[in-house]
Structure formats: C-alpha cells, structure tokens
# Entry
Amino acid sequence: MNWNKVSFVTSYGSLSQMPPSDRIEIAFSGRSNVGKSSLINKLLGRKALARVSSMPGKTVTINFYELDNIHVVDLPGYGYAKTAKGLKRSWSDLIGGYLISDRELELVFQLIDMRHAPSKDDLQMIDYLIENEMPFVIVFTKADKLKPTERRTRMAAFAQEIPHFEEITHVEFSAMTGEGTDELRRIIEEIAEPEEE
# Structure
C-alpha cells in the first residue's frame, strides 16, 4: 500500500448527497476533540490533510480521503456539550445513517482519549458496533500525555469500563510520538490487500 498516495476527496453534510460506495471504506469515529484529525494526518503522513481544530465539534461533515484503493472516512465528532440541539441531532443522524447504510464499510476505528474513562456516547457507540456485528478496533489516543504507571492504571480501568474488552482489538496511539501508527497501518493493509490481489 502506498501511504504517500493519498488525497482529500470530498465532504458530505447529508446522507442524500453521498454516492454509493465504489470501494472499501474504513471509518474513524470518536467524540469531539479526541484527536481524529491528528490521527488521520499521522497515519496518512500529512501535516494538514485533515483539518485539526482546537474548537471541539468543528467537523460537521463526513470527510472522505482516498488512500490507494480504499476510502478513509472521517465521521463528525460526537458528544460536544455546547452544540445546539438541532445540530447535535443532525450529526447523530449523519453518523448513524452512515453506519447503517449499505456501504462497503469494512472497519471502524473507535477513538477514546486514553486519559479519561469512556463517555456515555463512547459506550453507546461500542454497544452499537457490537450489536450490529460491525468489525471495529478501539484506538486509545493521546497516550503520550500519561506516565507509564498512569497508563497501566487506565488500561486496567478500561478492562472494567468497556464491555467485552478482552475480545476487542485495541491500540495505544500518540500523534506526537507516532506510537501505534505502524500497527494501525498494518490493520488497514490487511483489510485492503484482498482488493489488491
């Protein structure tokens, strides 16, 4: 897989705008400010492909990026408290609608900030993915922000906080140090490879 061959395709603000899938899609989901844009930029080896914002709730569209023969899909962040109710509803409709639509969705990377217990929205999302038998990997972001002992404590806590944790593939990630990048790329390559054969 050519990690340098990547480009922004387009953004969609509603499901009705979206054409049908024409290739495998891998989606990135998580609460606002969890570090989705930073992760996508690190993964795809670009500094500013996905727009990084210090203002949570900035991504209100589903953004598509082309990587070789697959689409990387950046879903809007959820759970930002200051968002107007109507806008919040349209986001959840957009995320939920995307997930249940008949697309070539092969994997969801579910991002959780490693420093904190999963939010109610995170747990809802994980329950949804499990119930609908959608393949997913949990990515614990901002790993560099914790000392080794704090990390061990948080990981032990996640095992209690997240249902079926021992059965879920998870990766500890830092956009600052690059930790976890190779592992995430390997997971994506395993999914994309059958298409290449």
The domain at 6-196 is CATH 3.40.50.300 (Rossmann fold). The first strand starts at residue 6 and ends at 12. DSSP finds five helices and seven strands in the chain. Helices lie at 36-43, 85-100, 120-131, 148-161, 181-196.
